[in-house]
Amino acid sequence: MRAKARQHKPGQMNKNEAAYARQLAERQRAGEIVRYRFEPMKFRLADLAYYTPDFEVQLPNGTIEFHEVKPGYRQKLKDGTRREAPFCFEDAKLKIRVTAAQFDEFAFLIVFPLKAGGWGRVEFGTRAIADIAPADQQMEVPCGA
What we know:
By secondary structure, this protein is α+β, with helices and mostly antiparallel strands.
């Protein structure tokens, strides 16, 4: 049994989401993205099963991406080394996987803050996702997806 987490209030950003919104605003000013919206829609996956992504992001080439913001943590690997990864429960990853499979015209990813600055990302689904930030500001990591 896991500890009870704070309940998310629809339409209100937590601190990681607010920080990522600032990053998206900078990218919009730089022309890297056309627009972004917070919690723009809810995807129906099955009866009484829904997924609401944190951000919808439109790229200049017309591609629509949905970004889920999660906290980051240092994951210890079997060989003793560590890597940064998003902290998310399996049910959250499962919802993103199912949504990416059902709505394959969109790109879905988890983004998380890196200790050194910038944002890491984990992509879901088969759709190719364009580079969203300079290589020194992002890192792609496997997430058991």
